[in-house]
Design goal:
Order of helices and strands: HEEHEEEHEEEEHEHEEHEEEEH
Largest sheet: 6 strands, mixed
Oligomer: single chain
Shape: globular
Mean pLDDT: 91
Structural class: alpha+beta
Number of strands: 16
Radius of gyration: 18 Å
Number of helices: 7
Distance between the termini: 41 Å
Strand order of the largest sheet: 4-3-5-6-7-8
Helix content: 25-40%
Low-confidence stretches: none
Strand content: 25-35%
């Protein structure tokens, strides 16, 4: 049975991280020259997205040839075992030079969060925020706030979807759902919610990391321990277990 060597994976990620950051830095020096194309679904893709996707595919398919590769920019069949990657979650922010974006990457032998063979990794190349599974250093800082703090989509926030909240909840808009889930896993906020459907490459790594910290992924009126679909219906809520019922009432989910 195929297995991955975690130390080998982490070492490869460090190498890729260094290369990716250098490439991004070189492109950020002159944003006007950054190549940006619009895909069929009207979302942008930059040369940075493609560079990162190709970089991960080359390295990890060389290490583990039997892995399928499922990238937002390069889709093979979603069949396990597989790599699932969003090379840049938050491409719109990236194209504007805003650092609220992340690489969302994982190697999965099944779709379940509690499969001990699975590995997930989130990395923000602008501020170096890193969250991953299978790490002794991972923790959720249980900060007790007077008001629950949540991170939401810039677009959803600007469209007024969170205008009528109770006085004991605060939401702040931030780009990239993967980045927000990385912040949640570090205890920087109490919950993340989206009212827009998400693709598996957007949220698989973040949901898996959160699950190892006993943070709930709540979809379709129930707590889930796996993600099977390529497109996941909204609303989706990630939160601490003790805050679930209050947040469900607040957001009527």
């Amino acid at each position: 049975e195929m297995q991955i060597n975690i130390e080998q994976v982490l070492s490869t990620l460090e190498e890729i991280k260094s290369e990716v950051c250098q490439f991004i830095d070189s492109k950020m020096e002159n944003l006007d020259s950054l190549q940006v194309n619009i895909k069929e679904d009207s979302s942008p893709v930059t040369e940075i997205d493609l560079y990162i996707s190709n970089c991960f595919k080359e390295r990890f398919k060389n290490l583990y040839p039997k892995l399928n590769f499922y990238s937002e920019e390069d889709k093979e069949e979603l069949q396990y075992p597989t790599i699932i990657i969003d090379p840049i979650d938050g491409t719109r922010e990236l194209a504007r030079g805003v650092g609220e974006c992340s690489i969302s990457f994982g190697i999965y032998f099944s779709s379940t969060f509690n499969d001990p063979r699975n590995f997930s990794w989130i990395f923000n190349p602008f501020n170096s925020l890193t969250a991953q599974t299978n790490s002794k250093s991972i923790n959720s800082r249980l900060v007790k706030r007077k008001r629950l703090l949540g991170f939401v989509s810039n677009t959803e926030f600007n469209n007024g979807l969170y205008d009528d909240l109770s006085s004991d909840i605060t939401v702040i808009p931030k780009g990239s759902i993967a980045y927000k889930l990385g912040l949640l896993s570090k205890g920087i906020c109490d919950f993340v919610i989206t009212k827009k459907p998400k693709n598996i490459w957007d949220i698989m790594a973040g949901s898996h990391i959160c699950a190892q910290l006993d943070l709930i992924t709540f979809i379709d009126e129930k707590e889930v321990d796996r993600i099977d679909d390529e497109l996941i219906n909204a609303p989706i809520l990630w939160c601490r277990r003790e805050n679930l019922e209050n947040l469900r009432k607040e957001f009527q989910i």
